[in-house]
Amino acid sequence: MSTVTITEEPLRLEDLLAIVAGARVELAAGVRSKIATSRAVVDRALASNEAVYGMTTQVGHGKDTRLSEEEIRGEQMFLVMSHSGGVGRALPTSQVRAALAVRLNGIARGGSGASPAVADVLVAMLNADVHAVVPEIGSVGASDLVLMAAMAQVTIGRGRAEYQGEVLSGGEALRRAGITPLVLSGKDGLALISANGISIGHAALVVDRAEKAADAADVAAALSMEATAANPSILHPAVARAKGIPGQAAAADHIRELMSGSGLFEPGAARSVQDALSFRVVPQVHGALREYVAAARNAVTVELNSADDNPLILLRVAVRPLAQPPFPMEHIGTL
């Protein structure tokens, strides 16, 4: 079985897809250090008397309500449980694994301030194939909150999970897999649910399928050209260079590679000097698809490797600032 090591470098979509397919996951030492450093910022904020959204205050309409030291841990549990209001069919295992991996990689970026134990539980669940039962429709708040909360429930031994082909309570699934349930501390619950793991993970799977569809379309075009003795001049590299569109060049190159060795490339082999329009524009049409898929891949890769938690933990770097910022740089929250 292959292993994907999450490092401080951006995670590739290919690595995410390998995790979805069952590859084991490890965290590099540098990532563990960054998670610990990020958590130290959170611990300092919790120990201070500052109002920090979702950490020392409630969220949503209660954003200005301060929490006592005793209430902070209970608030994290409340966030996970109160946002688990989804309905509908359970998401496929592939989407659940993708979301787990996305959230793990997000925590590895250092912006979440989650405890190292949170990352360890996510790694353990992926490696033991403990998959939360996640409803397809959410009803509370924005984005993926409800669906991420369903996964977060399993990390603390609540909710439901699939393990070895059987749907169990989250606690029983963790017990059978030998995983100790997570005990949430300040910021952990919010770090688990306030993320777009479902959307980003699903988008990565869609990009993968679209890229395979683009390749399959090229195969169909190559077979059609062979069957009709089409004119292969449309595939000449000079044609693609003249247009300068990478997707068109990629489609032409792929079809030409698929037809390597074909007799159609011999002089006089084509039936006509100009085929029907549906044949003549294959590189352009397939190239347009490839352009949009490439744009989607880029967007997903950016989101996959972004730190976009709320509040966001910003780790200090050894760079002289241009000016003194008018706010504390240890944590920034957007409401």
CATH superfamily of the largest domain: Fumarase/aspartase (N-terminal domain)
* Cα gyration radius (Å): 25 Å
- Which segments are poorly predicted (pLDDT under 50) over 5 or more consecutive residues? 318-322, 329-335
Using the coordinates shown, work out and report the CATH topology of the largest domain.
Fumarase C, Chain B, domain 1
CATH class identity of the largest domain: Mainly Alpha
Total helices: the number is: 13
CATH architecture of the largest domain: Orthogonal Bundle
Largest sheet: 3 strands, antiparallel
**How much helix, percentage-wise, in residues?**
40-55%
Shape type:
elongated
Oligomeric assembly = single chain
- Number of beta-strand segments: 9
Distance between the termini: 43 Å
Spatially, the strands of the biggest sheet line up as: 4-6-7
Mean pLDDT: 91
Strand content: 5-15%
Structural class designation: mainly alpha
